[in-house]
Description:
381 residues, D-amino Acid Aminotransferase, Chain A, domain 1, Dna Ligase, domain 1, 2 domains, 16 helices, disordered N terminus
Amino acid sequence: MRNYPSVAPEASLRTGDTQHRTSGADQTGASRGPLACTGTLDAWRAHSCSQDVRHLQTLRIAVVYGALSTEDAVYMDAIPPEEWSAASIEQVLVNLGIESVRLDPCRPDFIDQVRECDVVFLNVHGPFGEDGRIQGLLEFLGVPYTCSSVLASSIGMDKLVSKSVFAHLDIPTPSSVSVDATTGEHGLPIHFPAMLKAVDGGSSIGIAMVASSEAVRMSTASMTARGFSRLFLEQHVTGRIVTSSAIHVPRRGLIVLPPLEAVPRADYYDEESKLAGSECDYRLLDATETRTTDALRVYTEKVYHFLGCRGAIRVDFIVDDLQTPWALEINTIPGLQEGSNLPVAARMAGMDYSDIIVLLLLDALHRHRAPTWMNARDARG
C-alpha cells in the first residue's frame, strides 16, 4: 500500500490553449465570463504554479477507463481510440511530465494495480462507473479519486431520486410516472409526446421520445433488451436544451461555468448527438437572459452543495418558452471529450482543457480522507 500524499498548499497551474467548435462567443468574449469577473481562476493561477506541477510530478496517476457500462461501451465503439477522452487526459499528463498509467477496471488484476497508484482519475460512466460502486471500492482501498463520492454519485446516477432532490430544493422538474419494464404499462395518465427514460441511462442511451402507449411498449422492449430494468415516463417540455457545469477550485471555492445551449440536429438530444460532437452545436445564452442564467447558476450551486459533490458536475435542463429552467438530471462525472459540454463551457470562461484535468486531480487529493479503519490500523503499527 502506497502512502497517499496531500496537495501542496496554495498550488496552481497555468496551461496552454485547446480548440473547441462553438458558436456565440469568441476568445475575447470568453474572457469576460464568470471566472474573469470573480478572479477565482486568476487567483488560483497566481499562487505557486511551478510548485503545483512539481507536486503532481511526484505522483503516479491511474487513468481508469474501460467498458464498465453500456454507455462507455457504445462510446468506445463509436469514437476512434485516438479521440477517446482518456487519450486527451493522458496527453495533458504527458505534457506536464506527470507519470500515468491507464487501468481497465474490467480486468481481474485491477485492484492490485490501482493500489500501486497515488490518485485515480475516474473516466468511467454509467452503472458501476458513475453510480457509487467503483467510488466505494476506492474509498475502501483508501485511494484518492476524482469527482464525487459514493452518496452523490449514486443519487446523481438515479434519475428518479435526482428528481426528488430537485423537488426538495424547489428546482422545477417535469412530472413523471414509473413504467413496468416487463409490460410497458404505466399506472397514471401522462400527456404525449413524452420521454421514456431508463433510470440509470447516460449520454441519452436509454431514452426515447414516444407519442403513444403503443410506442411506450415498443420502446420499453428495446430498452430492456439493452439491459435496463427501471424505466419511467417524463412529461416532455418544449424548449431549449441547456447544460450548466460547475468545477471546484481547492481552497478557492466553486465556479459555475457559463450555461451552454445544446443545439442537436436530431429532434431531441439523442444518443448520436451526445456521443458524436459533429451532431450537436453549442452556444452561450444571450447576454439579455440574465434571469435564466442566474436561475441556472443558483440551481447548480444548490445541487452541488446539497449532495456534497466533489470536482466537477453537470446539470441538464430544458428552458421553456417562459424562460423557466426544468432540471432533468445530474452528471457527477461529466464527459471529457474535448468537444463535450464541460470542456466547451470551461473554454467559454477562459479555462483550458489542461486546467480541468489539473483541478480535478488537486481536488481529489485535497478532499481525500483515509478510512477510519485504515488510520486505526496504522496507529497500531
